[in-house]
């Protein structure tokens, strides 16, 4: 048995605000929902479900970070591999709105794993990594 699609459910805080961010900033399509309870998001062909929850209390808390080539990566996080064209569009929209948690940089330069990557927080402070794998066909 195999599948190339994943499903992830996360706390959204204010569901209306967070769902709008995924739609308007990341460019994701909203799918089925139960008003005031949960919202499915087409996360580039994967199913991300946002659940209404008590909003987290802001950026002031300390995150766990792990050292990964040229960066201290927030854990936990989830993300997506995009084509360079889609990566650039999302990067520009994030920069023009809420900005980056960790600014874009190149990781694993000169290897088959070279990637352009950045980290961003959604309105409920879930951390996402948006990347483009330079050496792999996307």
Highest CATH level, the class of the largest domain = Alpha Beta
Multimerization status: single chain
Lateral arrangement of strands in the main beta sheet = 1-4-3-2
The appropriate CATH architecture of the largest domain is Roll
Number of domains: 2
Please provide the ordered H/E string of secondary-structure elements. EHEEEEEEHEEE
| Helical content (DSSP H or I, runs of 4+) | 10-25%
Mean pLDDT metric: 91
The CATH homologous superfamily name of the largest domain equals: 2,3-Dihydroxybiphenyl 1,2-Dioxygenase, domain 1
Instruction: Describe the global form.
Output: globular
- Rg is 15 Å
How many beta-strand segments?
A: 10
Topology at a glance:
Layout: E1 7-13, H1 15-24, E2 29-34, E3 38-43, E4 46-52, E5 64-68, E6 71-75, E7 78-81, H2 84-96, E8 102-107, E9 115-121, E10 127-133
Parallel strand pairs: 1-4, 7-10
Antiparallel strand pairs: 2-3, 3-4, 5-6, 8-9, 9-10
Task: Please give a handful of descriptors for the protein shown.
4-stranded mixed beta sheet; 43% strand; 2,3-Dihydroxybiphenyl 1,2-Dioxygenase, domain 1; single chain; 2 domains; 2 helices; globular; 10 strands; 138 residues; alpha+beta
Structure, explained:
- The chain is built from 2 helices and 10 strands.
- A hairpin with a 5-residue loop joins strand 9 (115-121) and strand 10 (127-133).
- The strands form 3 sheets. A 4-stranded mixed sheet has the order 1-4-3-2.
- The chain is α+β, with helices and mostly antiparallel strands and 138 residues long.
- The chain is globular.
- The protein has helices at 15-24, 84-96; strands at residues 7-13, 29-34, 38-43, 46-52, 64-68, 71-75, 78-81, 102-107, 115-121, 127-133.
- The mean pLDDT is 91.
């Amino acid at each position: 048995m195999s599948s190339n699609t994943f499903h992830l459910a996360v706390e959204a805080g204010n569901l209306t605000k967070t769902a709008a961010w995924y739609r308007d900033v990341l460019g994701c399509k909203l799918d089925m929902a139960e008003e005031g309870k949960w919202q499915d998001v087409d996360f580039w062909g994967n199913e991300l479900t946002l659940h209404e929850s008590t909003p987290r209390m802001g950026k002031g808390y300390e995150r766990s970070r792990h050292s990964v080539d040229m960066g201290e990566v927030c854990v936990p996080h989830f993300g997506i591999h995009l084509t360079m064209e889609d990566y650039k569009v999302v990067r520009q929209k994030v920069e023009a709105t809420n900005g980056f948690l960790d600014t874009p940089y190149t990781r694993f330069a000169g290897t088959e794993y070279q990637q352009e990557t950045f980290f961003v927080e959604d309105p409920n402070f879930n951390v996402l990594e948006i990347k483009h794998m330079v050496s792999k066909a996307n």
